[in-house]
Amino acid sequence: MNEKQQKRVKLLIDRYPMLGIVEKEIEEVFDILKNCYKRGGKLLIGGNGGSAADAEHIVGELMKGFKSQRTIASDMQEKLCNVDKDMGRVLADDLQGALPAIALGNHLALNSAFANDVDGDQVYAQQVWGYGKKEDVLWAISTSGNACNIKYAIVTAKAKGMTVVGLTGKDGGYLGEKADVSIIVPESETYLVQELHLPIYHCLCLMLEDEFF
């Protein structure tokens, strides 16, 4: 981590001292996510309920500017203008650098069809099977670590050679056991776990933005 990223983590721990026990895991997850993007991979992010909303939130922070402007490279600006002078100029000015990430809960037709035709608990596994590549990372979010659809997704990701990182609580459950690295926050009540997840993933998204933009 560079100095700016170290300050991000320090600020997080200063604001939420109880997260000091997972500081090492936060840094390890950052390294995994950073290396995923450096090798051309993407994130597949999944959770249920509030954790599904967190997955969408993370995608929103990664796929567009968070704190930085993220102006696209000049050669890409030129290519856009070469396709269409007027619209290309608008796009060149407005498009922002993106870190590829997909929230698994957002595909209504696919998810409902697979749930109806096969098994709702395996919907995320089917998406990991279809989207996932060896260079990708599955970012699984479960307050208990034992959500059935998350467990199936983990097994599928591991079989495809993907790295799995977790954001969980309580004792970590299956996710804490099977993920390559899991951030297990020191809370057991669902809403309290989720309240600690948000500042952690905000910190990670800011650190990634620092790294690439």
Automatic annotation (TrEMBL):
GO biological process: carbohydrate derivative metabolic process
Cell inner membrane among keywords: no
CDD domains for the chain: SIS_GmhA
Transmembrane segments: none
InterPro entries registered for this protein in UniProt: GmhA/DiaA, SIS_dom, SIS_dom_sf, SIS_GmhA/DiaA_subfam
MF annotations from Gene Ontology: carbohydrate derivative binding; isomerase activity
Keywords, sorted A to Z: Isomerase
One Pfam entry name: SIS_2
Signal peptide (residue range): none
Source superkingdom: Bacteria
SIS domain residues: 33-213
Name used for this protein in its record: Phosphoheptose isomerase family protein
